[in-house]
Automatic annotation (TrEMBL), chain A:
One of its GO terms (cellular component) is nucleus. GO terms for biological process: DNA replication. SUPFAM superfamilies: P-loop containing nucleoside triphosphate hydrolases. Residues 84-104 have a biased composition (Basic and acidic residues). Residues 329-467 form the AAA+ ATPase domain. The keyword Iron does not apply. GO terms for molecular function: ATP binding; ATP hydrolysis activity; DNA binding. This is AAA+ ATPase domain-containing protein. Belongs to the activator 1 small subunits family. CTF18 subfamily. It is found in: Nucleus. Keywords: ATP-binding, Cell cycle, DNA replication, DNA-binding, Nucleotide-binding, Nucleus. It holds the Pfam family AAA. Residues 58-78 have a biased composition (Acidic residues).
From TrEMBL, chain B:
This is Replication factor C subunit 5. Residues 34-187 form the AAA+ ATPase domain. GO terms for cellular component: Ctf18 RFC-like complex; DNA replication factor C complex; Elg1 RFC-like complex; Rad17 RFC-like complex. PANTHER family: REPLICATION FACTOR C / DNA POLYMERASE III GAMMA-TAU SUBUNIT, REPLICATION FACTOR C SUBUNIT 3. SUPFAM superfamilies: P-loop containing nucleoside triphosphate hydrolases, post-AAA+ oligomerization domain-like. GO terms for biological process: DNA repair; DNA strand elongation involved in DNA replication. Gene3D superfamilies: 1.10.8.60, 1.20.272.10, P-loop containing nucleotide triphosphate hydrolases (3.40.50.300). InterPro entries: AAA+_ATPase (IPR003593), DNA_pol3_clamp-load_cplx_C (IPR008921), DNA_Rep/Repair_Clamp_Loader (IPR050238), P-loop_NTPase (IPR027417). GO terms for molecular function: DNA binding; DNA clamp loader activity.
Length: 883, 356
């Protein structure tokens, strides 16, 4: 019972007793009588208790009315803490009906106590009192609060320290400091020795032990009061008490109204929690969505509560899957929508409404595969303990899109397993325990990669922006309750600014309320700008660059209509971020819009800005000069200056695709050009650079290889045409060009040129006019001729030593070649025919007749050719040398 | 058997049909044994490459003509692998920096070091050094050019550089000063006619003068192109007689069409149509500056004399911007819009904009 006493340490003030008395003088409302003044009528009571006689150095020996004493004793226990205000005393005032009787009882008790003073004192357990500093004063004094302090009128700014020190010395409860010789005994009669302490100045102070009053004694004392007070005073007191109770009642009522959840919530709760909807009917937003969620949850009733749904659903509904447990087809509900639209609230309310206890798992919880089995499964199987109240559990997985991890062990995967009733261990023969409780998942981004596997199994509900007028009405109501002045226009602006995010709206309002009682546009602007950094979509950026904001809208959103747009648009462009695509979209769309200045000069001025932007972005990309990035938005804003017009609203910008398509085609075409370049002879490779091969070689080559041939049988073609064909074959083989037979998409056989350089003569999907249509039959003819030529060359390269065969081939070849190009034939004559399609030595070309052996001359030449490489000396040998 | 461009390419300096004084100088250079680094420059199709190859033949003999394509793999500092096709003979190697884009510095450094550090293996070779040919030297990045500077001096004993460019303006001065600059100008019309007749004679047919003229006109001093056009025409219309159409590359025809569209109508919707056409051209891998230049050429041909200067001015203006920037289509369209604006203003008010 006894407090530890710290003798010297706390007596820092030398004479803290004096200090106490000073405070008392300042604060105690009733005028203290001068020290040593005779006590008023009830005083004899105290005189009966010699042990409580004031200590000699205690100066605040003022008389106080008796009631004070008694009340203080009565309150001793309740007043244990230092910081006590009126409200904390409420418990005593709570029993309204009993109030008067209680007062009467107290007085009766007081009387009894007065008549038996020794009794009261002797048995009380003594306590040590700290006399040092304020704390001692406080702790000592609190126990003896006078009743007037309970009075709202008098007691609002009372100072416990001061009043207590006053009461302490004169009241019947034991004073803290006693230096008299009276011994104190506790209730069992043990002797309580006096305490000894030293002041900082070295003086010795003795304290008597204090006896704690017991409730019975208080009551006894209280009763004494009854007689000691005039009736009219008592009446006034009662009146006061009543009015105070009334006030408190009103206050409680208000609080209960504003904080229905926990009536005793501290004043500073977040409004978001304070005004969170509690009932299904309180929900903001689309009713359809709410009902959809509710319906889904109700579909579980058959499985969970074993009761048939009230409304018989059509069993033969389209896509109905019979489930033996009566579960809905999609066993998971996936709520998706931007933050602040009330998804979590809806989930909780609906679950509560449908009779479930909820288990929420959100991003703050550890979410891995183990969670699914440990928490979710357990909760589903066993209910969530005592809190569930015997209700089935509905698991709410909040912020599921943040669940990380891929692979088989991720949270989402194991959740899916749970949904699909996949047994935990594959080998085990026991079937998995089927899912018998609903699971609601909540996400912001429905298309988060983590959710991809879950989506097919989930009943997806998308949240949309709550209707502005309902939200505004709700905000208005809240503002009224919070005594915040806000007109509808301001609230509408706030809703627009936050994009319908209720949470953001409420937080902003609460923030504003902490500063001023009136919501203004400026306040909203200053507190909201930057609070919600959602970023602008490309579409809205395009729109706002092309369509100027109507004056009305501008006033509404920004509060001021000063016609400024650069900062606003630059901020928006910055928020959008994707500068390149943004500009591409603007660029592809601008000829479609109708600017105010439709002249081409205006377009040219705009193009100066585009060039500036391009220059900037080029520098940023190539030299990594990211400090230039700050200027980019200002290079984009002029689109608005030059192209913005109200009429553009009817022509929304479309997603840019022309540039990307063109890029893709270019890449594909470059591939074709490269494949040609690798197949052509090296000399051509070096003669034509990559650009000249595209601008000169390929288009003209296409003309060279598409002579106007007629598709007739190879045997009956005219000699001139045969020459052309031969030449064509000669050309195409070294260039690596070939025709391949293929089936077209419509099943028609077609000959495809490989590499497909014919794309370079097709513009706008049409073949150039001066190239003869390359018909299937012609190409086939060419392909056949090429095949036979290739076969022949292979035969030659295979070094067939049969001279007659060679001669026959030569003769045949000559026959073909004779008609048109002798040199062509001649070139392919010798046994060292250009195997790799390499250039022949010019000497042979220049002089076609020399190597061509007359066919009439029958000769035999036998030579051996060893294939492979050799380190032997090489020498050019002519056939004639061997003859 | 090959294309005429290749078939009738002069193999030696003596065979060249025009610029005889250049040929003789190159010949004496090759014979002197004090062969410098050379930068050949001149318009496309003037015969730079032909002369380079002929000079090499003069240096090393016919062995240079034995070309092969090697696929080489280079590793960039960022560990990216680049496959580059390199044309080389025993005596020289050819590089085309535009094949590797922004990594040309790595390729140039690697190849030059490799060449420079190995001596000529063939003891019979006439020259101690090898030659590195850099095609399209004007597309070398600044980094690559800077990397060349020191190498050119340091490895002079083992290696010579022959660079080939359209203009020297993009070659940094230090490199220009280390090279012998050789300008190969485009052949005159007569010279081209001589070459065409020579080819016709070798092919044993008669080339009518009208056809020759139209080919020369269409090819714009580009002999390579003229030969290709010639061969294409011969292939399509073997007689070449009468009034025949010159075979033109499709993109040229298309550019001309675009230019006509610009001159027909000047409006935002036409701008959109023109843009679609330009995208079509770009997706056929036609370089953007070529597109711009060709369209500008065509427009200059068509508009009144008073407008010609400003068309050329704006073509230059927007081509500069295009080279400074990164997105080609923006600048081509800016040019088109500007020309439309100029043409429209001229048509309405009969005056030209003061563009200075």
């Amino acid at each position: 019972m006894a407090d530890t006493f710290e003798p010297t340490g706390l007596l820092g003030f030398g004479d803290d007793i004096e200090m106490e008395s000073e405070e008392q003088v300042v604060a105690s409302p009733p005028k203290p009588a001068p020290a040593g003044a005779p006590a008023p009528a009830p005083r004899p009571l105290r005189n009966d208790m010699p042990s409580y006689s004031p200590p000699p150095f205690d100066m605040d020996e003022e008389p106080s009315d008796f009631e004070d004493d008694v009340q203080a004793m009565m309150d001793e226990e309740a007043a244990a803490s230092v910081a006590r205000d009126l409200r904390s005393l409420e418990p005593t005032a709570e029993e309204k009906k009993k109030k008067q009787e209680e007062a009467a009882r107290r007085r009766r008790a007081a009387i009894m106590a007065a008549t038996q003073p020794q009794q009261t004192q002797q048995p009380t357990p003594p306590t040590t009192r700290k006399t040092s500093g304020v704390s001692s004063a406080a702790s000592g004094s609190d126990s003896q609060l006078p009743e007037f302090m309970l009075n709202p009128d008098l007691g609002f700014d009372f100072r416990p320290v001061a009043s207590s020190s006053r009461t302490r010395t004169e009241l019947t409860p034991p004073p803290d400091l006693v230096v008299d010789d009276a011994e104190v005994f506790d209730e069992v009669g043990r002797h309580l020795p006096r305490l000894r302490a030293t002041t900082a100045s070295g003086g010795v102070v003795m304290f008597r032990r204090k006896l704690r009053q017991r409730a019975a004694e208080e009551e006894i004392r209280d009763d004494i009061q009854l007689l000691s007070k005039p009736l009219h005073k008592l009446k006034a007191e009662v009146e006061e008490m009543r009015s105070r109770e009334k006030a408190m009642e009103l206050e409680r009522e208000f609080e209960a109204e504003t904080q229905p959840a926990n009536g005793k919530a501290p004043a500073m709760t977040m409004w978001v929690d304070k005004y969170r909807p509690k009932k299904f009917s309180d929900l903001l937003g689309e009713d359809r969505v709410h009902r959809e969620v509710m319906n889904w949850l109700k579909e579980w009733d058959k499985c969970v509560f074993k009761r048939q749904p009230l409304k018989k659903r059509k069993q033969e509904e389209e896509g109905f899957v019979y489930d033996p447990l009566g579960r809905p087809r999609d066993r998971v509900l996936l709520l998706s929508g931007p933050p602040g639209y009330g998804k979590t609230t809806l989930a909780h309310i609906v679950a509560k409404h449908a009779g479930y206890a909820t288990l929420e798992i959100n991003a703050s919880d550890d979410r891995n595969a183990a969670t699914v089995s440990s928490r979710i499964k357990n909760a589903i199987d066993a209910g969530s303990g005592l809190a569930s109240d015997g209700k089935p559990t509905c698991v709410i997985i909040d912020e599921i899109d943040g669940a990380s991890g891929g692979g088989d062990t991720s949270f989402v995967r194991s959740l899916i397993k749970l949904i699909q009733d996949v047994p935990a261990r594959k080998k085990s023969n026991t079937p998995a325990r089927p899912l018998r409780r609903p699971i609601i998942c909540i996400c912001n981004d429905l298309y988060a990669p983590a959710l991809r596997p879950l989506r097919p199994f989930a009943h997806v509900v998308r949240f949309r922006k709550p209707a502005s007028q309902f939200l505004v009405a709700r905000l208005r109501e809240i503002c009224d309750r919070e005594r915040l002045t806000a007109d509808l226009r301001v609230l509408t602006a706030l809703v627009d600014l936050t994009g319908g995010d209720v949470r953001s709206c409420l937080n902003t309002l609460q923030f504003i309320q902490s500063k001023s009682p009136v919501v203004t546009h400026e306040a909203i602007k200053s507190s909201s700008v930057g609070t919600k950094d959602t970023g602008t979509t490309l579409q809205s950026a395009w729109d706002s660059l092309f369509v100027p904001m109507a004056a009305k809208q501008r006033r509404k959103q920004l509060g001021i209509d000063d016609g400024r747009y650069v900062d606003r648009l630059a901020f928006m462009v910055q928020a959008c971020g994707e500068h390149e695509r943004l500009v591409q979209g603007l660029f592809e769309h601008y000829p479609n819009v109708k600017p105010l200045d439709a002249s081409l000069a205006n377009v040219c001025r705009l193009h100066d800005w585009i060039a500036y932007y391009d220059c900037l972005s080029g520098k940023i990309a190539s030299n990594m000069e990211f400090e230039l990035l700050a200027y980019v938005p200002y290079a984009i804003v002029p689109w608005h200056t030059h192209m913005g017009a109200p009429g553009n609203a009817t022509r929304p910008a479309e997603w840019p695709k022309a540039d990307y398509e063109s890029f893709q085609t270019r890449v594909a075409n470059e591939e074709i050009a490269t494949s040609l370049k690798t197949s052509i002879p090296p000399i051509l490779h070096s003669l034509f650079t990559s650009s000249t091969s595209l601008t000169e070689l390929i288009p003209l080559l296409m003309r060279i290889i598409s002579p106007p041939l007629k598709p007739v049988n190879a045997n009956i073609v005219k000699p001139a045409e045969r020459a052309v064909l031969a030449r064509l074959v000669e050309l195409m083989i070294p260039l690596g060009l070939q025709f391949w037979q293929e089936k077209a998409e419509d099943g028609q056989p077609m000959m495809r040129l490989e590499p497909a350089i014919d794309v370079f003569v097709h513009y706008d999907g049409k073949r150039a006019g001066d190239i003869a249509a390359s018909r299937f039959a012609v190409r086939q003819l060419v392909a056949q001729a090429m095949d036979s030529e290739m076969a022949r060359r292979r035969g030659q390269a295979g070094a067939d030593s049969d001279a007659s065969n060679t001669a026959a081939m030569l003769a045949q070849q000559y026959g073909v070649a004779k008609t048109g190009r002798k040199d062509a034939a001649a070139e392919s004559l010798g046994p060292s025919t250009d195997f790799f399609g390499r250039v022949k030595a010019p000497a042979i070309v220049e002089d076609p007749d020399a190597p061509s052996v007359p066919t009439q001359f029958v000769f035999r030449a036998v030579y051996k050719f060893n294939e492979g490489s050799s380190s032997a000396v090489r020498k050019n040998v002519k056939m004639s040398a061997l003859m | 058997m090959s294309l005429w461009v290749d078939k009738y390419r002069p193999r030696s300096l003596d065979d060249c049909h025009y610029h005889p004084e250049l040929s003789s100088r190159l010949k004496s250079l090759a014979a002197s044994g004090d062969f410098p680094h050379i930068l050949f420059y001149g318009p496309s199709g003037a015969g730079k490459k032909t002369r380079i190859m002929a000079t090499l033949r003069e240096l090393y003999g016919p062995g240079v003509e034995k070309l092969r394509i090697d696929q080489r793999v280079f590793v960039t500092p960022s560990n990216r692998k680049l496959d580059v096709n390199v044309v080389q003979s025993n005596f020289h190697i050819e590089l085309t920096p535009s094949d590797v884009g922004m990594y040309d510095r790595v390729v140039i450094q690697d190849i030059l070091k490799e060449i420079a550090q190995t001596q000529q293996v063939d003891l019979n070779a006439k020259q101690k050094f090898k030659v590195v040919i850099i095609n399209e030297a004007d597309s070398l990045t600044r980094d690559a050019q800077a990397a060349l500077r020191r190498t050119m001096e340091k490895y002079m004993t083992n290696m010579r550089l022959i660079m080939c460019a359209n203009s020297t303006s993009k070659i940094i001065a230090p490199i220009r000063s280390r090279c012998l600059l050789v300008r190969v100008s485009a052949p005159s019309d007569e010279e081209m006619a001589t070459v065409l007749t020579h080819v016709a004679k070798k092919e044993r047919f008669h080339l009518p003068a009208t056809a020759s003229e139209s080919i020369i006109e269409a090819s714009d001093g580009n002999l390579r192109k003229a030969l290709l056009v010639f061969e294409a025409m011969k292939m399509q219309r073997p007689d070449l007689e009468g009034d025949i159409d010159v075979a033109r590359p499709d993109w040229e025809t298309y550019c001309a069409k675009v230019a006509d569209m610009i001159l027909q109508e000047q409006s935002a919707s036409r701008l959109l149509e023109v843009r679609a056409k330009i995208y079509e051209l770009l997706s056929h891998c036609i370089p953007a500056h070529v597109v711009l230049k060709t369209i500008a050429d065509r427009i200059v041909d068509k508009v009144d004399d008073e407008l010609k200067a400003s068309v050329v001015h704006y073509a230059a203006h927007y081509e500069l911007r295009m080279r400074q920037g990164s997105k080609k289509i923006f600048h081509i369209e800016a040019f088109v819009a500007k020309i439309m604006s100029v043409v429209k203003q001229y048509a309405l008010m009969g005056m030209t904009e003061d563009w200075e």
